[in-house]
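Let us practice reading a record.
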Amino acid sequence: MSDKGIIWDLVEPKVSYGWLLALAFEHGWKADFNMVKAVAVCAAESSRYSRAWHINDPGGPKESLDQGLFQINDRAHPYDGNIWNPWENVAEARRIFVGRGYKFNAWAAYNSGAYLKYVPLVWMHYARGRWQNKLPLVTNWDRPLTEAPPIPTPEEA
């Protein structure tokens, strides 16, 4: 869809909150509010679609591409790996978070406050603790993206 020259698309698969919490934990976010905030920022950025993309300034001099779960920008944060891979995308988001002094200010959803509407839902999934049953995660996510991660059950969605 297009809005004021901005192109944004959501492409399957959609990652469950439980998987996102487990991924965040595996990549170094402590089991605390920052982990909840990370998943809420991710949900606001990509609606949890691992292959979401967004073109900024299409055709303009500052054209760039936001990619994957955390909508990692290809100009601000060039990445040589598979940024569409959920494992790698969350790892890169964590690297950016740490590089910014443990702050989420690299993400528009954080700066605008859009992530806040996701915090209660993410907190509920966090508090249930079911995400811990997914640990430790298998770190080889080189499977086709249509196979990873599993489709969430209704109670996880």
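A brief commentary: The domain at 2-147 is CATH 1.10.530.10 (Lysozyme).
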